[in-house]
Design brief:
By secondary structure, the chain is α+β, with helices and mostly antiparallel strands. It has one domain. The chain has six helices and six strands.
């Protein structure tokens, strides 16, 4: 998660100037985890849920890594078949995609340690983790999974919600992101 990138996305999404003026943007691209958490809290207070989702679905680390090369040989498969192929590449519950009855796509991450789910975000490894973390923070991972699954499934996705996260649930729930499939 990078506040500089979020600011740029907010401008691209035409967040009104009167709202943008209320944000405290950091002066550097090397923000601390605590500055990132504070910024997310500002987002929760100043933006609508729809605005937050549209901004956060564009975030995510490792978006320069293309994943489609391994999926090229499955080009003739359906979306559901591709999801099953992706699922088979990971250990049980590590990464799991599924088509829901309402034709949305849910993607879950579930790394466990001592009976608790753990956060996969590298930013949180540097945090004191003492503060309550908004689920909005985890929208960055929603953007990450959106980017990679769009490539692997050859579809366009729109983030509907960040359903749950290890961070937001104190390790009780896995990370789950839900998307609308725009085109197949």
């Amino acid at each position: 998660m990078n506040i500089f990138e979020i600011k740029r996305t907010m401008l691209e999404k035409n967040i009104p100037a009167e709202i943008m003026k209320q944000f405290v943007f950091t002066e550097t691209e090397n923000e601390t985890p605590e500055e990132k958490i504070a910024f997310v809290n500002q987002m929760d207070n100043l933006l609508s849920k729809e605005q937050i989702l549209s901004v956060m679905e564009e975030q995510g680390c490792n978006k320069n890594e293309h994943t489609t090369d391994s999926m090229l040989k499955f080009k003739d498969k359906t979306v559901n078949e591709r999801i099953e192929i992706i699922n088979s590449m990971f250990k049980k519950n590590e990464l799991h995609g599924r088509l829901n009855g309402d034709e949305t796509l849910s993607i879950s991450w579930g790394y466990e340690d001592k009976g608790k789910y753990i956060c996969v975000c590298p930013i949180m490894e540097k945090s004191s983790k003492s503060a309550a973390i908004s689920i909005t923070f985890c929208g960055c991972c929603s953007g990450h999974t959106k980017y990679h699954f769009e490539q692997d499934l050859e579809v366009k996705l729109r983030l509907i919600e960040t359903v749950s996260s290890a961070l937001n649930s104190n390790g009780e729930k896995h990370c789950e992101h839900r998307y609308e499939i725009i085109k197949k």
